[in-house]
Amino acid sequence: MILNKAQIDAHNEKRLAQHKRAFDFVSGELPDAEAIIRKLVDFQVAIPSWALGSGGTRFGRFSGGGEPSTLEEKIEDIGLLHQLNRSSGAVSLHIPWDIPKDAQAIKNLATDFDLKFDAMNSNTFQDQKDQKLSYKFGSMQHVDKAVRQQAIDHNIEVIKYGEELGSNSLTVWLSDGSCFPGQLNFRNAFNNTLESLQAVYAALPEDWKVFVEYKAFEPNFYSTTVGDWGQSLLYASKLGDKAYTLVDLGHHLPNANIEQIVALLLNEKKLGGFHFNDSKYGDDDLTVGSIKPYQLFLIFKELVEGMDARGMNHATDLGWMIDASHNVKDPLEDLLQSVEAIMLAYAQALLVDSKVLSDAQLNNDVAGAQEILQSAYRTDLRSLVAEARLRSGAALQPLQLFREEKIRQQLIGKRGTNSIATGL
Ligand code: LRH
Ligand code: MN
Ligand code: MN
Prior knowledge:
Blueprint: H1 5-27, H2 33-42, E1 46-48, H3 71-85, E2 90-92, H4 103-112, E3 116-117, E4 120-121, H5 145-165, E5 169-173, E6 177-178, H6 186-202, E7 209-213, E8 223-224, H7 229-239, E9 243-248, H8 258-267, E10 271-276, H9 293-309, E11 319-322, H10 331-351, H11 354-362, H12 366-377, H13 382-391, H14 398-404, H15 407-415
Parallel strand pairs: 1-2, 2-3, 4-5, 5-7, 7-9, 9-10, 10-11
Antiparallel strand pairs: 6-8
Helix pairs in contact: 1-13, 2-10, 2-13, 3-10, 5-6, 8-9, 9-10, 11-12
């Protein structure tokens, strides 16, 4: 392991007095800081295996060096993140980018780092080297039944890998759609996709869930066959109780009210999982909270309220995953920032007094309702999130420790400057 407990302790020791001052100041003003901290300690966000290398754009890719080139190295990187913040205790794998050659060995390695396997992701949006039929014109929607069957078989294979690793959910994102009017019969595309998903659903183990991820556009630019939450909800409803919608924050048309979508999906018992990221224009996959942190808070406010209304466990009843990666930052620093942004938004949402807000709503007190939300959002809860980390044995300032210990330089020393992570 690159990092040991003594290094974390030494880092925390140096910052303890300053942290205590900030923490005492904030927590003294809160009605129940301890309840928030307990929830923060439990909350874990899965790290996607495909975010550990520099994500390229279609114009270029600039590796920072020391990228993990095997599944083992990816798990080591996620283990490192989890040591630093104790909030990244799960991995989300993408097949075939991360085929486990020896599933038991991979499982053991993950257990050594205290990591679980969250949703497995299938991939029918690229053609692989030895693949028989092409997905150029779609996979589950395809006019040729043989292509649809190939996509079904692939998803069933992904479930098998997931079972070996101890995962219990499958995320299906399809790039299926069309680029030009007339290219596709929408109804046939929908019905073919539904039939294919039904075949995958039939192969789902008893205790598994399937998440149907939607996306408005890209790579298809005229229509997408699972293009929005309405379409995803249709598929999920027709499939059955084990099928849910997955919300990826970057997959909406501009200005979509994602918090309202989340509230309604929860209300319908059909919200299954999340892909966190941020964006300014499209599916930019930028660091969570880097562009629209208030939106992130509003989404968490709906999540907390909706889950509480249904007596759900925040930490375990939805699949929480990051889906972000790009060109210019160190991927591990980027992921530390994303997790921090998620924890902060969650903490702020926990601070909202739902009873007081509900009273304001019942009285049509619009200004009052806004005050309640914004005063939670503007409370600086960074020291609470840090306190949760401290109590779980993580670093008070994970990113600083990553830099102090020159972890990227160590990874480059071990893996070289040209190692390339599989993924986007
Ligand atoms: C599609 C997507 C989907 C994929 C991932 C690599 O844009 O969000 O979740 O699996 O990116
Ligand atoms: Mn996604
Ligand atoms: Mn995406």
